[in-house]
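2024-03-11 09:14:02 DEBUG pipeline.ingest accepted 1 chain
2024-03-11 09:14:02 DEBUG pipeline.ingest length=143
2024-03-11 09:14:03 DEBUG pipeline.predict start
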Amino acid sequence: MRRIVCGVVVALGLSVAIAAPAAAYSGTPVSSNWVPPVVTPYTTSYVDFGGTTLACVGAFVVKSGDDTETQVCHVTPGPEATISPGRFSGSPTGLWPYGVTAGYNSDYYLKSGVALPAASWSIRSFSNGDGTFTWVMRSTYSQ
């Protein structure tokens, strides 16, 4: 009998815990000023430091107070470039997988001919085992 009573109490407690948040939700958004972010996908390719070729797909996200860019690039090192795997970051400048210290400009805006420097950026560089690399890059921009 004790197990049945405990089971009923636990079941009632869970149903109250689950029902309480649902009852508290009024159906209106937290802020009536909320605007969904604008996400723009893009592709780009270019030659960078030491003849390195980058082919990238990414998304530029614009939302109030925080513009971000996330992209994944297939990187083929050029004849004068040595690339390392690992984590790299800057705010606004920092060490790149090439071994040089530099800032980062938006690839999304560079396609339009505008150099927009990132406030901060990060790169995760992975070796593909065939001499090429994959970079996962994220950057933020001040408005």
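2024-03-11 09:14:41 DEBUG pipeline.report The helical segments are 2-24, 107-110.
2024-03-11 09:14:41 DEBUG pipeline.predict end
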